[in-house]
Specification:
globular; binds guanosine-5'-triphosphate; binds magnesium ion; FeoB_Cyto; P-loop_NTPase; GTP binding; ferrous iron transmembrane transporter activity; Small GTP-binding protein
């Protein structure tokens, strides 16, 4: 049966997202507006094994903490539009810095593939990366590619196909925080679960609210058309302002 899946491309600026997007879609892109904001996001499609994949090129960001419109747009897309897969494009030559965003995204959703790009550059610099170790540590598939020369694409296509058809599933190893933070999450998470539907990570929402993410709170209230008193946990309402 032919199906259509949405694939979001996320990553730090300058990691080769657009190069990958163009290589996959053959530049058949048009631009669209998302989440009521006038931010243009490229969109295009490719076909693999009779399935159509709609690719969404999200703005490049260093984090998803609501520091800028770009971060809000990328965050809202991943959390609320719920693409079948979020491809996190990371730069093989600065993996440590890039994995910061990757860790934030696997806290939000298990439907993630980490795409290590610029492998040609890494090889030139003598950097070797063991993707199997990374896959084990992160709990989501990791694929090495060179977007510029389309190297590694066969495995990337295959991994996307297996993830959307549930042959494999992401089981992210999420970060555990200090006991006092985990205690607060444990209190807030069941409450969040009663407000958001279960396709959204209640743990991640709880974490963001504990961090005082007002922008996310406003977005939640807007999307579910609820008043602030219904979103805030009765015992912990001050937490939003921590
Ligand atoms: N050597 C090499 N260069 C690459 C590769 N992929 C992308 N680049 C180069 O990296 C630079 C950034 O690529 P873009 O595709 O514009 O990156 P981006 O992530 O879309 O950047 P922003 O839109 O600014 O976030 C460009 O000069 C690309 O030609 C690759 O696989 N190998
Ligand atoms: Mg780009």
């Amino acid at each position: 049966m032919k199906r259509e899946y949405v694939i979001a491309l996320a990553g730090n600026p300058n990691t080769g997202k657009s190069t990958l997007f163009n290589a996959l879609t053959g530049l058949k892109q048009h631009t669209g507006n998302w989440a009521g904001k006038t931010v243009t996001i490229a969109e295009g499609t490719y076909v693999h094994k009779k399935n159509t994949y709609r690719l969404i090129d999200l703005p490049g960001t260093y984090s998803l903490f609501s520091n800028s419109t770009d971060e809000e747009v990328a965050r809202n897309y991943i959390v609320f539009e719920q693409p079948a897969v979020t491809l996190v494009v990371v730069d093989a030559t600065s993996l440590e810095r890039n994995l910061n965003l990757a860790l934030q995204i696997i806290e939000m959703t298990p439907n993630v593939i980490i795409c290590i790009n610029l492998m040609d550059e890494a090889e030139k610099r003598g950097i070797t990366i063991n993707e199997n170790v990374l896959t084990k540590k992160l709990g989501v598939p990791v694929v090495k590619i060179t977007a510029r020369s389309k190297k590694g694409f066969a495995l990337l296509f295959d991994t996307i196909d297996r993830l959307v058809s549930n042959v494999i599933q992401g089981t992210p190893n999420v970060v555990r925080y200090q006991p006092e933070i985990e205690e607060k999450i444990a209190k807030l998470e069941p409450f969040v679960r009663t407000v958001v539907n279960d396709t959204i990570s209640a743990r991640w929402i709880a974490l963001r609210l504990l961090d005082g993410d007002e922008s996310l709170l406003q977005e939640l209230m807007k999307r579910w058309n609820r008043g602030e008193e219904e979103i805030l946990c009765p015992q912990t309402e001050h937490m939003v302002h921590i």
